[in-house]
Specification:
Blueprint (H helix, E strand, L loop, with lengths): L3 H11 L6 H12 L1 H29 L13 H24 L3 H8 L2 H8 L3 H21 L9 H14 L2
The chain binds phycocyanobilin.
C-alpha cells in the first residue's frame, strides 16, 4: 500500500534517477493540498454513518426498483449489504484521500470486485450512482466545514466510479 510520495520515489528509484522538477512539483502539490485533505478526512470520519445513510436513502429514492421484490437490495440482508458496501467505499475513499494516491483502492477494494458483483447480480450502474451521491454529500459537508478547496474530496470517489464503470464493460 503506497502514498503519493512512496509511489513517486519507487518510480524514480526503479530507473536510478534523482527527483526532477516534475517529481518535485508533484510532491509539492501533495503537501500543499495536505491540510485540506486531512480536514476533509476528519469531516468524513465524524459524519460517516450519516453520510452512508443519506446516500442510501437518496439512491433508493432515485432507483426504487432496487429495494422492490426482484431488486438486488431487496430483503433486509441485501439492503444491509448494500449500505455496508457504501460504507467500504467511504472509508477506503477517506484513506486514499489522506494518502493522495489510489493504491489502497486498487489493493483493498477494486481488485476482484467485478467478479463478485457479477456473480451476485449486484448492478454496477446504481453502485456508481451511489458513490456519486455520496461524493456530493461529502462535498457539501466539507464545504460547510470551511475547507479551502472542497474539490480535494473528488479524486478517490471519481477513481472508484471510473474503475467500476470500466470493469462493467
Ligand atoms: C472492502 C472491500 C470490499 C467490498 C467492496 C466488498 C463488496 C461486496 N459486496 C457484496 C455483496 C453485496 N453488495 C450489494 C450492494 C448493492 N446492491 C444494490 O442493489 C446496490 C446497487 C448496491 C449498494 C449500493 C448487495 C445487495 C450484496 C449482497 C448480494 C447477495 O448476497 O445477494 C459481497 C459479497 C459477500 C457479502 O455479501 O459480504 C462483497 C464481497 N466486500 C469487501 O470486503
Amino acid at each position: 500500500m503506497r502514498d503519493a510520495v512512496t509511489t513517486l520515489i519507487r518510480t524514480y528509484d526503479n530507473t536510478g534517477r534523482y527527483l526532477d522538477s516534475s517529481a518535485l512539483d508533484s510532491i509539492k502539490s501533495y503537501f500543499d493540498s495536505g491540510f485540506d485533505r486531512i480536514q476533509a478526512a476528519a469531516v468524513i470520519s465524524a459524519n460517516a454513518a450519516g453520510i452512508v445513510k443519506e446516500a442510501g436513502v437518496t439512491l433508493f429514492e432515485q432507483v426504487p426498483e432496487l429495494i422492490r421484490p426482484g431488486g438486488n437490495a431487496y430483503t433486509t440482508r441485501r439492503y444491509a449489504a448494500c449500505l455496508r458496501d457504501m460504507d467500504y467505499y467511504l472509508r477506503y475513499g477517506s484513506y486514499a484521500l489522506v494518502a493522495g494516491n489510489p493504491d489502497v483502492l486498487d489493493e483493498r477494494v477494486l481488485t476482484g470486485l467485478r467478479e463478485t458483483y457479477n456473480s451476485l447480480g449486484v448492478p454496477i450502474g446504481p453502485t456508481v450512482m451511489g458513490i456519486e451521491i455520496m461524493k456530493g454529500i461529502i462535498r457539501a459537508k466539507v464545504q460547510e466545514a470551511g475547507v479551502a478547496d472542497p474539490a480535494v474530496v473528488d479524486y478517490p470517489f471519481d477513481y472508484m466510479m471510473r474503475s467500476l464503470s470500466e470493469l462493467s464493460i
